[in-house]
Amino acid sequence: MMIDQNAPLASLELWEDDVLSRYPQPEHKAKEDYRNYDTPERDTVREFYRLNHTYQTYDFVQQKKAEFLSFDKKELPVWGAMEFLNTLVDDSDPDTDLDQLQHLLQTAEAIRADGHPDWFVLTGFLHDMGKVLCLFGEPQWAVVGDTFPVGCKHSDKIVYPEYFVNNPDSYDERYNTKYGVYEPNCGLKNVDMSWGHDEYLYHITKNYLPEPALYMIRYHSFYSQHREHAYNHLLDDHDHEMFKWVNKFNPYDLYSKSPKPPVVSELRPYYEDLIAKYLPATIRL
């Protein structure tokens, strides 16, 4: 089976389904209720993580920050950015006919239904907007996937840790110790994470949203910490407080999908008002 190195997953949804298989909803769905992959699909997930774990190095992250955090690709309203994201079509996902915008509205509406603050609702709506990186030609393994700190030893709690054997940082004495380039409990504000949609969107929104929202955006794919607590040695006390919000957000991220599509035209005025409350008229990508 030939696998495209830039797009090993037939659909970005396969990564999310893999997360669900690892962290099933405790009260409702048993693990076996989620999609069971046949061998070729499982192989593509493994290949995705092989690429991710091979190429997500400390230097790679610095290069991507230099490339994308100049925000010189596009300037458009937030709703326009969501419509741009919607041109990223996952035709091959058999589980749902919903598009990216409908998925995000489902997450946000589940948060709103539970009575959370409006900035929390907005975070649910925005949290995957960084996937527009795919539309700028970035490979899947540099857009989605579990995130993790770079510049220090890779935890064995990260999914498919065996693939870090291919990562040059594993053999670089600057980066392969427990703390690497960091100090004990230095705080995540001083830690570089692997590059992807989480980090990108954090930098787009960091001057506008409340701090708990920024933690949700930046660390919602950091499963080795918020599920496995593998990097407590890097977190400071403030991180631990803020991760209570990440933990609140995570079930909405994972478990709010429904086959019933939201009616975008009915919801758009509410979300446009919410966007206007917190964000500028246009954002730069």
TrEMBL record:
<dbReference type="InterPro" id="IPR007828">
    <property type="entry name" value="Inositol_oxygenase"/>
</dbReference>
<dbReference type="GO" id="GO:0005737">
    <property type="term" value="C:cytoplasm"/>
</dbReference>
<protein>
    <submittedName>
        <fullName>Inositol oxygenase</fullName>
    </submittedName>
</protein>
<dbReference type="GO" id="GO:0050113">
    <property type="term" value="F:inositol oxygenase activity"/>
</dbReference>
<keyword id="KW-0963">Cytoplasm</keyword>
<dbReference type="GO" id="GO:0019310">
    <property type="term" value="P:inositol catabolic process"/>
</dbReference>
<keyword id="KW-0479">Metal-binding</keyword>
<dbReference type="GO" id="GO:0005506">
    <property type="term" value="F:iron ion binding"/>
</dbReference>
<keyword id="KW-0560">Oxidoreductase</keyword>
<dbReference type="Pfam" id="PF05153">
    <property type="entry name" value="MIOX"/>
</dbReference>
<keyword id="KW-0408">Iron</keyword>
